[in-house]
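Researcher: I need the complex structure. Ligand is zinc ion. Inputs:
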Amino acid sequence: MSALIRQRALINPTQAWSRLPPEIQQEIGRLAITMGLGHMGVSAAIAPRSGFLAAEAEGLSGLCRLIADRLVEAFDGDGQPLLPDLTVLGIKACRTCFCTDAFGCPEGCSWISSNLCSSCAQDARGSF
Ligand SMILES: [Zn+2]
Ligand SMILES: [Zn+2]
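Model: Output:
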């Protein structure tokens, strides 16, 4: 089965963040810290669980709201989010399907080259 992957536009999160005004950058930082600490508390199963769950969820929903309101360039013409370029964060990703070591293709894959996974290499050979 050949997976047809719609070519997606990537957004550079570092550039997007750097173009925001300082007060929005600060708000993003506060929300990210809140979400991260909430997630760590939930993952470590420490009390009060509902407090950590709330911190994680409120941080994430606040981030989404702020991105939707203030980062117009992060969305395509249909209002769908662009895919963040993970390589900017130093994360190795496939150039075709954007899978990573932590989130590989559903059928399983390995690295064929520094930026191409075995699933996509197979698709390229199988296409005509
Ligand atoms: Zn791939
Ligand atoms: Zn893959």
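Model: Summary of the prediction. The pocket of zinc ion (ligand 1) is lined by residues 94, 96-97, 99, 117, 119-120 (CB under 6 Å).
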